[in-house]
Design goal:
Strand order of the largest sheet: 3-2-1-4-5-6-7
Strand content: 15-25%
Number of helices: 15
Helix content: 40-55%
Radius of gyration: 21 Å
Length: about 350
């Protein structure tokens, strides 16, 4: 099978990660696979590291001027500006897949719905995205849910040390946030203040966007001596190995790569009840779900977990098992290959 993944993401994010690692897996399984992406993007550079052919995504590509002949599958990842005229041409030679990983506006999903005559399958990265497909008017039989993938091997070492970690005190509670409004970081620090009032020995770690105002917020709350502010890091597996509990204090819906990485590292997670973020968590089984924007609710959940190490450990084991069984690169790639095979076997019955 010949598979072309198309991704114009300028950042190294969940979208680019999936486009790359599924292509790399397809190659290992004996298929032909390549990635079409911007030449100056992190994705283009990462393709070279994994020996995946990267083709430059040019300005002309944005308007559909690239050749799809010779590819059995052309799989677009988070491409809001797809041209119906181009897709009509492309589907004459290839099966067309459209994956949406990020939750967007109603308007963006309606634009995707207008492409139905030319798309074989719309793939949502979580149930919330698939629901948005249906709300936009996409036919249910034309949608499918495939979770984001993760290269589990990078995170297993953190997972292996967790049984011993949960027996140690003091506990370390952490988060990773690239929120430039600093609302997530402020909520995390407010939660930390509430926890320290009850459990003053607890330590905290805040990783992500570099902004000195974060330290100022911690000093204003009188807790700066208990919070390690590490800015953006490239050694996230090692960071996860130091955490007992991960608190995702987001206030906006959407999937989070760092949350999935925490679960794969055996870090017990406290998650807000938001679309995308809580889609893969069963409350009190593989994590704890609380109401968003409430630092006291987060604090109570964390205090309860610190007070019950065995509960904390069991949740972390279940979270790892879920990610390993449903989101590992081999599992996700195999699901996609089955959908590709089904599409290639079906007769065309779309409107011309």
């Amino acid at each position: 099978m010949k598979i072309l993944n198309v991704c114009d993401s300028p950042a190294w994010d969940m979208v680019a990660y999936q486009a790359l690692h599924t292509a790399a897996r397809f190659l290992k399984q004996g298929h032909t696979a390549a990635v079409l992406c911007p030449r100056n993007s992190p994705l283009y550079a990462e393709c070279g590291k994994l020996k995946v052919e990267a083709r430059p995504f040019t300005l002309g590509s944005k308007f559909g001027f690239f050749e799809t002949a010779g590819w059995d599958i052309v799989h677009f990842y988070n491409m809001p500006g797809l041209s119906p005229h181009f897709l009509k041409k492309a589907r004459a030679a290839s099966r067309i897949f459209v994956t949406q990983i990020k939750l967007g506006s109603q308007e963006s999903f309606q634009k995707l719905a207008q492409l139905q005559p030319y798309v074989d399958l719309y793939v949502g990265a979580c149930n919330s995205v698939q629901e948005e497909f249906l709300v936009a008017g996409i036919e249910p039989q034309r949608t499918f849910m495939v979770p984001p993938c993760l290269n589990i091997g990078r995170w297993e070492s953190a997972m292996l040390i967790k049984p011993a970690m949960f027996l140690k005190r003091p506990y370390k509670v952490g988060t990773i946030s690239m929120d430039r409004t600093l609302k997530e970081q402020e909520l995390f620090l407010m939660m930390a203040k509430e926890i320290l009032d009850v459990m003053p020995e607890t330590n905290f770690m805040l990783v992500g966007v570099k902004d000195e105002r974060i330290r100022e917020l911690a000093r204003g709350l009188g807790i700066s001596h208990k919070v390690d502010v590490l800015w953006e890091r490239n050694d996230i597996p090692e960071v996860m190995a130091m955490m007992h509990i991960y608190a995702k204090t987001a206030s906006r819906p959407g999937l989070s790569m760092s949350l999935i990485e925490a679960q794969a590292s055996g870090v017990t997670c406290v998650i807000p009840r938001l679309k995308g973020l809580s889609d893969f968590t069963v409350n009190e089984r593989n994590g704890v779900i609380v109401e968003p924007g409430d630092p006291l609710a987060f604090a109570r959940a964390v205090i309860r977990l610190i007070s019950n190490p065995s509960v904390c450990h069991n949740m972390s084991n279940m979270a790892f098992a879920y990610v390993n069984n449903n989101m590992s690169v081999p599992v996700v790639s195999n699901i996609l290959l089955r959908t590709y095979e089904d599409a290639l076997q079906q007769k065309r019955n779309f409107v011309e």
